[in-house]
Amino acid sequence: MAESKRKKKVTVREVLNGKFFESEWFRRNRTLMFMIVALLLVNITVRYKSEKVIREMVALEDSLIELRSNSISIAAEVVKLGRHSVIIDRVKKSGLDLETSKEPPRKLYVEKE
Question: CA 20 to 30 Å from 49, out of 5, 12, 14, 34?
C-alpha cells in the first residue's frame, strides 16, 4: 500500500511517447484538462480579435486626424470666400451691375391670419 501512495514523477519521455496519457491520474482529470485546453483556445482567439480591433482603431484615428485637418482647411477657405471684399471683387470681375445697399438690413414682420 505504501508503494501505491508513492508519487511517481512524470518525465518528458513519458509525455512524448504517450504513456502519460494512459495513466490513472490523467484519466481522472481528463475533463479538467479538456476545459483548460478549451479556455486556452478561447483566450488565444479573443486576443487575436482584440488586436485586430485595436489595429482598426488606430487606422481610423489616423484617418480621423487627416479628415479634421482637411475640414479645417476647407472651413478657412469658405471663410475667406465669404468676406465682403472678396464678394465685391468677384461681382466686379463678373461684370454684374450690382451695388452694395446703402440701407442696413431690417427684419420683415408678417401677420399670420
Answer: 34
